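Slide 14.
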Amino acid sequence: MSLIAGLIAGLAIGLTALAGTLATAAAEDYPTRTVKIIVPFGAGGPADLYARFLGQQLQDTLKQAFVIEDRPGAGSVIGTGEAAKAAPDGYTLLMMSNTHTTNETLLPNKPFQLMRDFVPVAPVNTSDLIMVVHPSVPAKDLKEFIALLKSRPGDLNYASSGPGTPYHMASELFKAMSGTSIQHVAHRGSGDARTAVMGGHVQMMIDAITTTAPTVQSGARLAEAGLAGYEATIWLGLMAPAGTPAAVLDKLNSEINNVLKRPETRQAWAKQGAEPLVMTPAEFDRYLRGDIEKWAKVIHTAGIKVQ
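Slide 15: predicted structure.
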């Protein structure tokens, strides 16, 4: 190697090291201004509620405002598309769920790809889903409800907050496993879907136990109620636009995990039916890829499509 080439190589190494040092220093100061968390779901749903809880906790510890921006629509595609366009600087985050991992297969033509356009920050929690049926429906348990659906194929409706959402996928999985026909009525958000069922405009919804438990007398998971092998949950997590500095992701991950590990967080969420999920960004990356693969198999096997 010539002297000049050696000097250039040494300069390149030095500049790379300097860039790494500057990025680390920037992460230590992060955040220096308001951080926005985009929630691509409706107000009052699990994603909105837990984003607000987490935002407040991060605001208390990091001493900068964390504001929540609800951008519902098209089964999370509208708000997620906005988040994908944001600068990768740690000041725009996305509150996501397994809606996003199912949409990778269900909506292949959406304007973003989850694992290309975003990077994992941290999971938040997971909770069970519960089937709720309006009291006017002449069925007192799951067995009778399935029999009713089979006797009146296509006559009854179920609500969801849009295509690809856990409420939609869980209901389609129920249809496939029970051999029944019930029509999908999509709403702009889970709150609207919930209101439609409570008002009797739609007969059924598979909903998050964290938000629907106060309005129902009792309930069992579908596997417990007689639909063996049925498994569907809702989980939440945070991602950031691709290119966000690793040091910023690591800092956010550490702060979020500190919140999730607090006994008071675990105790409060347990009463709501939610369980914290604590992972590193790398572990969450593997979790996301595994969930995408899992739901791709379910969607293809059950023949689930967006109408």
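Speaker note: The chain has two domains: 11-126+235-302, 128-215.
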